[in-house]
Amino acid sequence: EDEQIVAEIMGRRFFPDFIAYKTWEGFRFAGHEIRITEATDCYGAVVWPSALVLCYFLETNSKQCNLVDKNVIEIGAGTGLVSIVASLLGAFVTATDLPELLGNLQHNILQNTKQKCKHQPCVKELSWGIDLEKNFPRSSCHFDYIMAADVVYHHPFLDELLLTFDHLCKDDTVILWAMKFRLENENRFVDRFQTLFDLEMVSNFPSLNIALYKAMRKGGMK
User: Fold this and answer.
1) Is 163 inside a domain boundary?
2) pLDDT tens digits, residue range 140-190?
């Protein structure tokens, strides 16, 4: 079953038939052909398999996880694929990442959502753990969903990442988080994450070493 679903997920990716002056990959989700411009010299500007897993979940569970008119934020949006799919499924999306990635992120989102979505997504800078209250004040920012794909890996900002999840998450916010397990850091982060959030594994793909989680704040609304 794992291999069949993984084959279906990876089958959503396609490549150009000719050499283009820009590096791009194509994907088919939410009834649209999505073209993503990448930069292979930057981790944040490449589509990783965890993003495909999350997009597949959003598309195939659109009744149980209805995004229409929901307020969604993606952290570590990278190339923007997850934000684009969530937008095409009817959500109002805020796609966030580091300032050096925003140009490519904005390009991909505009190219793939303009005049195709109920709500035009916005792109915003978010450096984990920095100026959170200033840029995303708790009093006025309420997100129905926080989405993240492959944000946990070998980097020195795991404390800031957990702080960011904590700041953005209200009692009724649902976190959808796809992660590839590579090193022990990932396991340790999951343990720390569970001190603040109730965590449920929604899907597991051993052949990709990727798990998809759903989480809510401890003591929050179920």
Assistant:
1) yes
2) 999 999 999 999 876 678 899 999 999 999 999 999 999 988 766 677 888
The parent domain of residue 96 ranges over 1-217
CATH number, domain containing residue 174: 3.40.50.150
Total number of domains in the chain: 1
Stated pTM of the model: 0.91
Asked if pLDDT for residue 133 goes beyond 80, the answer is: yes
The answer to the question of residue 222 being in a domain is: no
Looking at residue 22, what is its pLDDT?
Answer: 64
Of 71, 90, 208, nearest to 149 by C-alpha is: 208
* Residue 188 falls inside a structural domain: yes
Helices (H), the chain: 2-10, 49-60, 81-88, 102-113, 132-135, 158-168, 184-193
Structure tokens at 130: 């920095």
Task: Confirm if 96 and 66 have CB atoms less than 8 A apart.
Answer: no
Higher pLDDT, residue 182 or 202? 202
Q: Indicate the residue type of 71.
A: N
d(CA 32, CA 76): 23
166, 195 contact by CB (below 8 A):
no
Contact present, 138 and 167 (Cβ < 8 Å) = yes
Cα angle 102-108-114, degrees, rounded to a multiple of 5: 115
